[in-house]
Amino acid sequence: MKMEFDHLGEMALNRLNVLCPRQASIRQSFEASENLAGDSVRQSPSPQPPKRDLYTLLRDHASQDEVLGRLWAESNAIPSWVCWEQIERGQEVFYRYGGPALTGLAFQSLLGGMGATRVVETLTRTGGFSTNVARHRLFETTQHILQCTRDLRSIQPGGAGHASSIRVRLLHAAVRQRIVKLAREKPAYYSIQTNGVPINDLDCVATIGTFSATLIWLSFPRQGIWLRRKEIEDYIALFRYIAYLTGTPHEFFETPERAKMVMETLLRDEISPSATSRILANNILNSLEGQPPTFASRSFLEANCRWLNGNELCDELGLGRPSLYHWMLMAGQVFFFMAICYTYRTIPILDRRKIAAFRRIMWSVIVEDKQGLGQETVF
Q1: pTM of the entire structure?
Q2: DSSP letter, residue 47
């Protein structure tokens, strides 16, 4: 799967590049990201995203081009296995366990995921996790999740989450093309033979897995949270549909059992931290240290990482060892999450109120607040 990728998305991007050529400056920024310094503070800045809206271009020209029409039709078709009631329940699962979910996504799915050597080889060539932009990239990723879970209409055709997922699919194709082109011009820049095609099918399956299976069977249990069987099925179904929209092989998420098997296989075969892994992991912590909305200390951030990922992986990522005080703070956070989540989920009226409130709060803090993104961004 390392050599397989989303061919339809790639062909569609080629047509869109003819309709609206990308800026030359984008390519220059990718070349600059090659100069990854050992000192994380001196890393190259992230490339600025293209000003064009690939989703809007696709929508407006789908009727004029066969390839664009195929992608548009596929993206708007509803697979037979989609049940909107189940998708809506899956969205609610995310907010029912919002605190543990965000903690798991940040410190296990993202930071722990930096232990995957092949993946970080792609990330370093986008500049997206240098110290000065990692926090913004983290918030953009969170915005995508919030768009996909804001309400049922958002993930349905025409909704913000639906459009955002298609943008992600086309953005992946754009990043893949640029890295491959530079690798052909300068073979030392990126080894396709060693790392596979950038953002290949295996990478995409792993990404969907970190947002779903990793949370269910690793992050939540390590925070004292065990989902009910129905919640697991609903949450996996939601991310299977997101996988479909982003051009990711979705059959790996057909059942919870298969999703768990994929997660365990990837953890066994893909996690092997490199020197670059250590740089990016520490960049993430540097970008979050003392920053709103939590203003958490470095030691508390490291306690989160070690609680969720274990000491062995965190040692390999070069993370510090927090004091007993910070371990106690982390334990207190876990017990707080357990008390809130289990109490509210047992009382339906409180559960509904909490889900509605958490939806508003997370959107406000991550997207609208000036300490977050400041406004809804377009990938």
Answers
A1: 0.90
A2: P
